[in-house]
Design a protein that fits this description.
By secondary structure, the protein is mainly beta. Helix content is about 5%, strand content about 40%. It has a single domain (about 35-385), classed as TolB, C-terminal domain (Neuraminidase, 6 Propeller). It has a 5-stranded antiparallel sheet with strand order 1-2-26-25-24, with no helix packed on it. The protein has a 5-stranded mixed sheet with strand order 7-11-10-9-8, with no helix packed on it. A 4-stranded antiparallel sheet has the order 3-4-5-6, with no helix packed on it. The protein is globular and about 55 Å long.
Length: about 400
């Protein structure tokens, strides 16, 4: 009996020691499960879609700050953090500006470089009030706890109009000290061919907002030096592939004619002189046709328009069959659009996923695990991951 009591006492003591030690060793927590809303397959691989948050207005941009925190923007002007471990939303305070809300304008994209660490700069685009008009603006700030600090506008673009459409605006980094961001034509078509305005362009600046010395129009008289490419209608997706050094963009056409382009320095992508889209008021070709010397051809055309809201280059391990694919969220046709891309950059077959959800898919971001998170205009944030 005495021996048995000693054994029990020893077992309890060892258990207590284990509990105390476990409290001292950092434990790796798994993200809190979400509500499964859909199960599908892609290339024979089953995956599930889980809803992680709801009621967020229009979550326009998202970026991972670490394995468990997503920073997101709301077009209404707020910025928040989704804690995946706790399933909680933290709305950030701070000195970030009021946005010029209305139509397609507001707080837009958020992005961080691949080597981001806590306390580094976080980059944003938003529509800024400039004399009562809206101008797409690139800014950056630092996050400390529940606050954003040191907000700085890096480039208030010369794109202000009184239109409430075509602000762009997505952000990409090349890992070489440069940030790219897109600006739509701001509802004034000739802007895209006018190099004295930033509208209708892909812009490239250094991380501090200064102009790189190798920008294509740096020394060209009458051209804004931040312009990297022009002739764009409303690019709402951009991504830099650090493996192939390719810069990709996807943009809205008018009625038909959404485009995917490989962006090259100094090139003219044609809008509104050439287009594969039709006028909204009738079955009439926009511009002068589909081809013109000195203007680039798209690598992919969507007709009818899917209305792309984002672009992701997949480089994760969770979906091996998606490696190197381009994935975009479709707003009008409400699906996730996947395109195969070969080693030479040629675009291959297309797959349309998640159509049964009937969601306007806005932002896309890849997690460290290789899962895909997306937001919807109905206010949700969702996670797409393989079925275990």
């Amino acid at each position: 009996m005495k021996t048995a009591f000693a054994l029990v006492r020893g077992t309890l003591a060892w258990g207590l020691i284990c509990i105390l030690v476990a409290g001292l060793i950092p434990q790796k927590s798994a993200a809190k499960p979400g509500k499964v809303v859909l199960v599908q397959k892609s290339q024979g691989m089953p995956f599930q879609v889980e809803q992680m948050a709801s009621g967020l207005g229009v979550p326009w941009g998202m970026a991972f700050l670490n394995r468990s925190e997503i920073i997101f923007t709301q077009r209404s002007g707020r910025i928040g953090i989704l804690d995946l471990d706790k399933g909680r939303i933290l709305l950030l305070k701070g000195d970030f500006p009021r946005v010029k809300r209305g139509g397609q304008g507001g707080m837009l994209d958020v992005a961080v470089p691949n080597d981001y660490r806590a306390g580094d700069w976080i980059y944003f685009t938003y529509s800024k009030d400039v004399g009562g008009k809206g101008a797409t603006t690139l800014a950056r700030a630092k996050r400390k706890g529940d606050r954003l600090q040191d907000w700085r506008d890096l480039l208030v673009t010369r794109s202000a109009t009184d239109k409430r459409i075509h602000f762009g605006s997505r952000i990409a980094f090349d890992g070489m000290g440069h940030v790219y961001f897109t600006v739509g034509d701001r509802g004034v078509r000739p802007n895209a061919q006018d190099l004295s305005t930033h509208a209708g362009s892909v812009l490239r600046v250094n991380l501090d907002g200064t102009v790189p010395e190798d920008n294509p129009f740096l020394t060209t008289p009458g051209v804004l030096p931040e312009i990297y490419s022009f002739g764009h209608r409303n690019p709402q997706g951009i991504v830099f592939d650090t493996s192939s050094k390719r810069l990709w963009a996807i943009e809205h056409g008018p009625r038909g004619g959404d485009e995917i382009n490989r962006i090259l320095p100094g090139r003219n992508y044609g809008w509104p002189v050439i287009s594969y889209g039709k006028e909204y008021w009738g079955p009439v070709q926009v511009g002068e046709g589909t081809h013109k010397k000195g203007m680039e051809q798209p690598l992919k055309i969507y007709d009818p328009s899917i209305a792309p809201g984002s672009l992701l280059l997949y480089r994760g391990n969770a979906f091996p069959g998606w490696q190197g694919n381009l994935i975009s969220g479709a707003l009008k046709l409400e699906h996730l659009n996947r395109l195969a891309v070969d080693a030479q950059g040629k675009i291959g077959p297309e797959e349309r996923l998640l159509q049964d959800l009937e969601l306007r898919i806005r932002a896309l971001v890849q997690s460290p695990e290789g899962w895909v998170y997306f937001s919807s205009d109905s206010g949700g944030i969702f996670r797409l991951r393989p079925v275990n």
